[in-house]
Input
Amino acid sequence: MDFIIALVALVLGIGGGYFVRKLIAQQSVASAETKAAHLIEETRTKQKELLVEAKDKALAVIEEAKREKEVQMRDVAAQQRRLQQREELFDRKLLEFEDKQQQLQDARHKVDHVKEELLKLKEDSLKKLEAIAGLTREEAARTLLERTERDVKDELLSRIRKLERETSEEWERRARHYIATAMERCASSHAVETTTTVVALPNDEMKGRIIGREGRNIKAFEQLTGVEIVVDETPQTIVISGFSLLRRHIAKIALEKLILDGRIHPGRIEEALDAAKKEIALEIKKAGEDAAYEVGVVGLDPKLLQILGRLKYRTSYGHNVLAHSIEVGHLSGLLAEELGANVTVAKKGGLLHDIGKAVDHEIQGAHTDLGRDIMKKFGLPEEIAYIAIAHHEDHPSTLEGIIVKVADAISGARPGARKDTFEQYVQRLEELEKLATSFEGVEKCYAIQAGREIRVFVHPDKIDDWTAQKLARDIANKIEAELKYPGEIRVTLIRERRVIEYAR
Output
C-alpha cells in the first residue's frame, strides 16, 4: 500500500514537475518573443532615424556640390572670357605685326632702291672726277696720302717723338725702380773662370810618391779621374787641371785622402776615388737642400734636389750655375712681389730654370727641354715646368715666365757675373756692327760700352728724319731676332749734315 502511494506520489510529482516546467518554458518563450519584438521595433526606429539623417546629409552634400559646381562654372566662364579676350588681343597684335612687317619690307625695298641709285650716282660722279682729274681712284688716293704725309710729316714725327719719349721715360723709370729694388736686395759674388785646382802637399817628397815608379801612380790616377796632374817645381804644391769642376773636385778629395794615408798605389787610388765619389754625392744632396732652403722653396722631391745639387759643379762663362740659379730664384721672387705675380711659381721656376744643365752632358737634347721634362717627371705643374723653356723664348706666354727671363738676364748681365773670352767679346762686337751696316743708307757704325750700345751714322741725303726713326726701330728688331745677348743693347742713330764754307 505504501508502495502504491509512493508510486502515485512519484507519478504525480513527475506530472506536476513537467507541467510546471512547461509553464515556465512558455512564459520564457513569451518573454523572449516580447524582447525580440521590442528590439526589432527599436531597430526599425533607429533605421528610420539613420535613413532620415543620411538623406539630410546627402541633400547637404548635393547642395554643397551644386554650390562648388556653380563656383567652378563661374571660374571657367571667367577664364574662357579672359582667353577669348587674349586671343582677340593676340589676333590684333598679329595683324599689326604683319602690317608693320609689310611696311618694313616696303621701306627696305625703297632703301635698296635709293641705295642702288646713290651707288650709281657715286660711280658716275667718280668716273666724271677721274675723267676731269685724269687720275684713277687708286692714283688719287695715293697722291692724296703722299701730299698729306708730306704736309704733316714733321708734325707727326714731333708728336711721335714726344709720345715715345714720355712713354719710354715713364716705363723706364718704373722698370728701373723694380729692377733696382730687386738687385739691391740680392747681393751675389763675382764669377772667376778657372780650369785648375791646387792641392797642398806636406813636403816635396810626396810628389815622387804621387808619381810612383815609372809614373804608374800618376797615370792610373789620371786615367781613373779624367783629369791631368801637373807636377812642377812649385814647392809643396801640385795642380789638378781639367774642364770638369766635378772631376777636379773628386780628384782633389781622393788625392788629399791618399796624401793623408800615405799609401799610394793603383789599388789604393781606386778605393780613395770610390770614397771621394760617395762624399761628393752627399755634398751634392746637401747643396741642393741648402739651395732650396736659401731661396725659400719647399716641397721638392729629394731626387730632384739631388739633381739640383749637381749644378754646384757646373759653370757657364765662369759663373757657377747653382749660384746663378739661387740668384735668379731670389730676383724672381722679389720681382714677382713688386709686380703682383705668383711668388711661389716665380721662385720655384727661377731656382729650377737651368736644372737641365745638370744632365745635358749625359743626355742628348737642349737644357731647356731637358729641364722641362725633369720638372714634369717629378710632378711639378706645367706653369713651373714651362719656365725652363720660357726663359729662352722671345715672348713668354706667362707673367712668371717673363719675370724669370728678366731675372736670368739681370743675373747674367750684371758686372762680374760672367767671364767672356776675348775672342767671344770681339765676335759679339763684330756681329753687332755687321748687322747694322747691312741696312741701306748706313754709312758706318761703332759698337761701344762693351757691346751694350751701338751708334749708327747714316747718309743725311738718303735718310730723312722720318726714315731715321723707322730705321732705328728696324735695327733694334733685327738685333732682338738674330743675336743672342744678355741684357739690353741701345741703338743710337745719328743723322747730321755738316756744311763747311771758307771766307777768303
Remarks:
- Residues 117 and 461 are 52 Å apart (CA to CA).
- The mean pLDDT is 80.
- The first strand starts at residue 196 and ends at 200.
- Residues 422-494 form a domain with the GMP Synthetase; Chain A, domain 3 fold (CATH 3.30.300.20).
